[in-house]
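Known limitations

Files may contain more than one protein. Parsers should not assume a single record per file. Below, a two-record file is shown to illustrate correct handling: read the sequence, read the token line, then continue until end of file.
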Amino acid sequence: MFQQIENLLNEKSLRYKTQCEIVKMEKRNLKKSEQAEQDLNSAQEIIQTVSKTIQENAHSKIASVVSRCLESVFDEPYKFQISFERKRGKTEAKISFVRDEAEVDPMTGSGGGVVDVAAFALRLSCLMLSVPPVRKTLILDEPFKFVSQNYRDRIRELLESLSEDLKVQIIMVTHIPEIVSGKIIEIG
């Protein structure tokens, strides 16, 4: 009977030691997991900081081109703005125009061809920001069809100055003679 009790105690002691080793191992795993979580949080903060810097740089460059184009064409121009918002784990960009400190939805609150000019300027911005750099050529089909007639001479002047300043070639299909400049090829 004493031998059975001793065997039972040895068995329990062995189980206890095994359980103690398991607890120690789990504590080490927990510490490793906590450190990994801290490292991931630090990495996420770095990525978010870099992402914000890139967004601000992109906004600055894009907004300057779009605003320049709008200012060149319209008497009371809008300022172009991009707002970045984090939704559903992703960054979304919201484009708007600002005039007299009021935000305007480009698709519903602007007229006279403002959206056409902004769309052209966005295409130009994408071309200028391409990495690696690509050939600076824009091919456009009726890009200014909704621009009011009284702004068309300014469109031509804008295209000429952008082409010269940014060294970009603009190939355009249009039925609007007032905006035509440079070498003209008539078809039809």
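...continuing to the second record:
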Amino acid sequence: MKVVALMQGADRGPRVLRSTYSLYNGATGALLLIADADHLTNLRTAAASAVATEALALPDARVLGIFGTGQVARAHAIALASIRPFREILICGSSKKKADSFAAELLSLDLPPARAVTADLCAAEADVLCTCTTSSLPLFDGRLLKPGTHLNLVGAFQPTHREVDTETILRSRVVVDTLQGVLSEAGDLLIPISEGATDERVVLADLHAVLNNTASVRRNHLDLTLFKSVGCALEDLVAAELMLRHRSRLEFEAVL
């Protein structure tokens, strides 16, 4: 069970979302684990993006671009750097001060060199681009994206909010985590559909179909691929069970 509070107003503090996750035994109802769901969500969201990137991004992708400077962005930098040998990370934040600070933080984590850049530069130079923001408006002009780019969109989860423009969607080969969730929550797709620029067929597959080779998405090195996720309960469940397994192993080793 996941309980989420969305903090609004000027006095909300540094965290917009605050949540708790409880894992229960399905047969007995016994409580197995209570976790900070903000941390769990960051991990599983970045992990899903990493899986999509491994499946869809070009093998020679070397520049990672990240929009956002929060914990989700941090988790993405760590997760994606673990699967691809990026030579640098480009950071675009809501302010240069935040972007500079975030870039310095990433450097301290033994990740590839990171630097703060403008939105246009981040969009134009990234081979893999992650949007991890709370923005309700497009972050960049979709015409700037170079052929072959792979995008992970994780920030917008309301029908009226989007992180990319219609041009980006029309140029991309789109994959989603869950079709039902995305088509009820993701403004990145719902807004272009409402404009009449495209329809639901713009979604080629869900990630499950891609990983099981039942859907063909990237056709060549010029295609733009896009993974849009809004999260799903199955990802939370798997992440929580892995946390429980890892904790149990650590406790067993401590006893030894």
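Parsers that stop after the first record will miss the second one. For reference, the second record is described as follows. The chain has one domain: 46-235.
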